[in-house]
Amino acid sequence: LGGAMGSLFSSWQPAVAGPPGSYALVGMAAVFAACARAPLTAMLIVFEMSNDYSLILPLMVAAVTASFLAQALFPESIYSIKLSRRGIRFSEGRDMDIMQGVQVGEVMNDDPVTIGKNQSLAELYQKFQETHFLGFPVLDEQGRLWGIVTLQDMEQSLTNTAANLRGMTVGEVAVKDPVTVFPDEPIWAAIKKMSPRDLARLPVISRDGKNVIKGLISRSDILRAYDVGIVRKQRGLLLEQQTRLRREEYNGFIEFALKKGDSALGKTLQEIEFPLSVNVISVERDGQIIIPRGNTLFLEGDIITLFGHKDELKATKDNFHYFKSVTPL
Q1: Three-class SS of residue 89?
Q2: How far is Cα of residue 69 from the mean position of the Cα atoms in its chain?
Q3: By three-state DSSP, how is residue 290 classified?
Q4: 261 or 245: which carries more pLDDT confidence?
Q5: Over the Cα atoms of the chain, what is R_g?
Q6: In this structure, how many other beta carbons lie within 10 angstroms of the beta carbon of residue 124?
Q7: CATH C-level class of 104-224
Q8: Residue 229: what pLDDT?
Q9: Rounded distance, CA 264 to CA 299, Å?
Q10: Domain 250-321 falls in which CATH fold?
Q11: How many CA atoms lie within 13 Å of 316's alpha carbon, on the beta-carbon side?
Q12: Per-residue pLDDT, 30
């Protein structure tokens, strides 16, 4: 299209229009900028190809306009569209699905250290020294959230005034009506509130409008939430794979619990004989999932999960109740 437009302009106004090849290069840069959302990269590529820096103005206009127009019409680029189709959506480098799948209440500190607004700065300074924290929620006389105070607030106040520590109260240096978050909001909501203001922590309050503090969430809690989300997502993918495997015509799963009197009790996995087409997937013990190995010892109450050929599963299950011992190599 760029080359065609250049040819048209050249035939219409040959004295004003440049060579058609320049129009083709600008059009190429606009297409790439729109597809990749990378206008600067598109301009650099054209500069390297043409070694003509006189194209910088039309390149900037075409690449930036194409990039913004494409973003408005279709938010995904050629690099993120494949991830989006797989259910992975990113915003500012963060996996939104993971951050939206974990709630604030799951990772917050539900027993935060607080301070009253009428307490002295000397008491506040003592709390900073004892806990090594950098900020505390401030409560009013009824125990409701009033504000938040940080070490930087206290240092700035003491620098700007000549008052002593015991002559001032926490309420005089704290920030009133801080930004808050609710326990049932996703972590992504907390990130959007913290990032623009460069906040290190957010008080968590109830939704009843009474400013009752429920906890405190910090940047370290958000990092932990990402780990929780990753594990949860991987578990979901595993369950999805298991569901697909269950649909196989010849393969299947079977679960059973070891009871008192079963011959497998006190034996290891390598001592139990079963077909090569059957695998011991997991052992659930006291709510914990164990990935079995050859030296895994079976105990009463263990829930065994087997996967394998459907014709072999029943016989393999019977081997755990009455089996032939195999001498380990």
Answers
A1: coil
A2: 29
A3: strand
A4: 261
A5: 32
A6: 24
A7: alpha beta
A8: 77
A9: 8
A10: Alpha-Beta Plaits (3.30.70)
A11: 23
A12: 85
Tell me which DSSP letter residue 301 carries.
T
Cα–Cα distance, 23 to 1 (Å, whole number)? 9
Does the pLDDT of residue 292 top 70, yes or no?
Answer: yes
Q: What angle do CA 267, 271, 277 make, to 5 degrees?
A: 120
Q: pLDDT digit string (tens) for 67-91?
A: 888 888 877 777 666 655 655 555 5
Joined together, the tokens standing for residue 119 give 């307490």
Residues in the chain, how many?
329
Q: Which two tokens stand for residue 120?
A: 């002295």
CA 230, 232, 238, 244 dihedral sign is negative
Q: What is the pLDDT of residues 196-222, one digit of tens each?
A: 777 888 999 998 878 899 999 988 888
Measured over the CA atoms of residue 190, residue 195, residue 197 and residue 200, the dihedral's sign is positive
**CA 76 → CA 30, 35, 64, 67, 71, distances in Å?**
16, 9, 16, 11, 7
- Report field, pTM of the whole predicted structure over 0.70: no
pLDDT band per the 50, 70, 90 thresholds, residue 329? very low
Q: Which of 100, 39, 102 is nearest to 65 (CA)?
A: 39
For CA atoms 312, 317, 323, 327, the dihedral sign is: positive
- 3-class DSSP state of 205: strand
Identify the burial level of 6 via C-beta atoms within 10 angstroms of its C-beta, where 0-12 means exposed, 13-18 middle and 19 or more buried: buried
